[in-house]
Structure formats: structure tokens, C-alpha cells
């Protein structure tokens, strides 16, 4: 994308943003890439290195919980020392300046919260929470590493990461909150997601159908780039601060 074209798109989005009453944002792994968190599908992506079916499905966990926990312990270790980047911080600042703001994220790294964002919907759970496989109690646990097979404090059963795996459905309350935000917003910004995993992938299109203007910020074109009203090609850590 030509530099001038990018500038014009940023200007257009900036005007829409500061005129909006209700803003929804959807983020994916791309927003955390500049913090050092690996994405899933691009160059160096996690699903290039590992098979998701071996590590991020309920079947994988039943078959080999130690292996799955080893993977999540490794991801916790990797993310723990990392900091939010200017993209995360810009979103936290935008939230303070617009009347209504909802941040819907597919990320489990907790970096939006670290950056100061408040109204966050975590579609795919959180790396720092664990859930009992029997009594379903969810607790925050930031210890690293967790035991090979961590146990629930209330009932002693095996804990699992409080994340959504392939083949699992999203929590209904979480999904409903996301659809409320999408249905009510007048502007939606879709950032750093490849648009390959449902239901998040179609949220931008739904917002557009509901009458919102939809903008995308991504390093590369996605299947939705031509569908949205504005498509900005660039790094979120460089583009988002320009909206302020
Ligand atoms: P992907 O890895 O599929 O896509 C990352 C996107 O970010 C790509 O479109 C990149 O072009 C873009 N990108 C990379 N660096 C960027 C940067 N600095 N600025 C802007 N964009 C950048 O990640 P997601 O779309 O988040 O789910 O993946 C969706 C879901 O698939 C994840 O939540 C996870 C995964 O399997 C589960 O584990 C359930
Ligand atoms: Zn329990």
C-alpha cells in the first residue's frame, strides 16, 4: 500500500473514531506480535511449529494432559516477562476518550489488561486462569511453572487451562457480551487477526451488517479486507498511536 494511501486511511479512521459514540474493537495475535508473542499462522507461527490437534483440543488433553500442560507452561513462561506495546496502550487510551468502548480479544496473553484496558471480553479465555475439570471452579494462578499435573484446591481433581480449545464452544455469556457490543457499536476496528477462526472471524461483517463502519488494521490482506470500509496495511503498534 502506498504511503499516501495509508495516511489517507488513517485520517479517515481517525475522523470516524472521534465522531463515534460506541466503539468495538476485535484483536487477534497480531496486536501482541510486536511485544514478542508468537502469532499462530504467519512466519514463525505456533501452528507452523506444533500441531494444534496434539495440544489444543479436549481430546489431546484427555490423551496426554502432561504434554498439554507442558505446552501451556511454556507459553506462560514465554509471555510472563513481555510488556504491552504501543498498540495495546493506544487502545487503552482510546477507551478513556470515547463514550462507550468494548475490546473483544481472541488473545489469552493478558496484555490488554496490563496496558490498562478495562472493558475487555476474552473470547478464548486467559493463560493466567485455570479451571477444574470436575467442579469447574475458575481461579487465577500466575505461578510458573505450574506442577506437571496441577490439582484443584477445592476438590483435588485435575486442572486445565481456562482457554477455549478447537472443537469447544465459547462461553455463552462471553459470546453474548461480544454480540451486544457488535450490535450496538457505530464503529468497529478489527486488528491483527487472520480471520480464520469462527465465530470471531465473522464479527466484523456482522457489525457492518448492523450498520457500523468497520476498519481493519493488519500487516497483510485478509479475506475481509475488501469487505470492510477501511483497510489499513501496517503494524498495529505503529498505526494505532497515529489515531490519538
Ligand atoms: P493468526 O496468527 O491467525 O493471525 C495473526 C494476524 O496478525 C495475521 O493476519 C497477521 O498478518 C497479523 N499481524 C502480524 N503481526 C502484526 C502486526 N505487528 N500488526 C498488525 N497485524 C499483524 O492469529 P489470530 O487471528 O489471532 O485460537 O488467530 C485466531 C485464533 O486461532 C487464536 O485465538 C487461537 C488460534 O488457534 C485458539 O487457540 C482457540
Ligand atoms: Zn475442583
Structure explained in plain terms:
The chain is of the alpha/beta class. The protein folds into 2 domains: 3-37 and 84-124 and 169-243, Rossmann fold, CATH 3.40.50; 38-81 and 125-163, SIR2/SIRT2 'Small Domain' (2-Layer Sandwich). The chain is built from 11 helices and 9 strands. It has helices spanning 3-19, 30-33, 46-49, 52-55, 58-63, 65-79, 86-97, 111-115, 172-184, 203-209, 236-239; strands at residues 22-27, 100-105, 120-122, 125-132, 138-140, 159-163, 187-191, 213-218, 230-233. The strands form 2 sheets. Strands 3-2-1-7-8-9 form a 6-stranded parallel beta sheet, with helices on both faces. A 3-stranded antiparallel beta sheet has the order 5-4-6, covered by helices on one side. Helix 9 (172-184) crosses helix 10 (203-209). The longest helix has 17 residues, at 3-19. The mean pLDDT is 97. The structure holds 2'-O-acetyl adenosine-5-diphosphoribose (OAD) and zinc ion. Zinc ion is lined by residues 132, 134-135, 137, 152, 154-155, 157.
Features:
244 residues, Rossmann fold, SIR2/SIRT2 'Small Domain', six-stranded parallel sheet, three-stranded antiparallel sheet, 9 strands, binds 2'-O-acetyl adenosine-5-diphosphoribose, binds zinc ion
Brief digest:
The chain has 244 residues and is of the alpha/beta class.
- The average pLDDT value, as a whole number, equals 97
State the name of the first-level CATH class of the largest domain.
Alpha Beta
Q: Would you tell me the structural class of the helices and strands?
A: alpha/beta
SS strand fraction: 15-25%
Query: What name does CATH use for the topology of the largest domain?
Result: Rossmann fold
Q: For the report, how would you describe the main beta sheet? A: 6 strands, parallel
Q: Helix fraction?
A: 25-40%
Number of alpha- plus pi-helical segments:
11
How big is the Rg? 18 Å
| Shape descriptor | globular
Ions, cofactors and other bound molecules: 2'-O-acetyl adenosine-5-diphosphoribose, zinc ion
Strand order of the largest sheet: 3-2-1-7-8-9
Order of helices and strands: HEHHHHHHEHEEEEHEHEEH
CATH architecture descriptor text of the largest domain: 3-Layer(aba) Sandwich
Strand segment tally:
9
Tally of domains: 2
Low-confidence runs of at least 5 consecutive residues: none
Report the end-to-end length measured between terminal Cα atoms: 22 Å
CATH superfamily of the largest domain: TPP-binding domain
Amino acid at each position: 500500500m502506498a504511503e499516501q494511501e495509508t495516511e489517507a486511511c488513517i485520517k479517515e479512521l481517525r475522523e470516524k473514531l472521534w465522531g463515534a459514540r460506541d466503539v468495538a474493537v476485535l484483536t487477534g495475535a497480531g496486536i501482541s506480535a510486536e511485544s514478542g508473542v508468537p502469532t499462530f499462522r504467519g512466519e514463525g507461527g505456533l501452528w507452523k511449529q506444533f500441531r494444534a490437534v496434539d495440544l489444543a483440543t479436549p481430546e489431546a488433553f484427555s490423551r496426554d494432559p502432561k504434554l498439554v500442560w507442558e505446552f501451556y507452561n511454556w507459553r506462560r513462561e514465554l509471555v510472563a516477562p513481555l510488556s504491552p506495546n504501543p498498540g495495546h496502550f493506544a487502545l487503552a487510551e482510546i477507551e478513556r476518550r470515547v463514550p462507550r468502548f468494548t475490546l473483544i480479544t481472541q488473545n489469552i496473553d493478558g496484555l490488554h489488561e496490563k496496558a490498562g484496558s478495562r472493558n475487555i471480553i476474552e473470547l478464548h479465555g486467559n493463560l493466567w486462569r485455570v479451571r477444574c475439570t470436575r467442579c469447574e471452579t475458575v481461579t487465577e494462578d500466575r505461578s510458573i511453572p505450574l506442577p506437571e499435573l496441577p490439582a484443584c484446591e477445592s476438590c483435588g481433581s485435575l486442572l486445565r487451562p481456562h482457554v477455549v480449545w478447537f472443537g469447544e464452544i465459547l462461553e455463552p455469556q462471553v459470546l453474548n457480551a461480544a454480540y451486544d457490543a457488535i450490535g450496538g457499536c457505530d464503529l468497529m476496528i478489527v486488528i491483527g487477526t487472520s480471520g480464520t477462526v469462527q465465530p470471531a472471524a465473522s464479527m466484523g461483517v456482522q457489525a457492518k451488517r448492523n450498520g457500523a463502519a468497520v476498519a481493519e488494521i493488519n500487516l497483510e490482506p485478509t479475506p475481509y479486507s475488501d469487505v470492510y470500509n477501511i483497510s489499513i496495511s501496517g503494524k498495529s503498534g505503529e498505526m494505532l498511536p497515529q489515531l490519538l
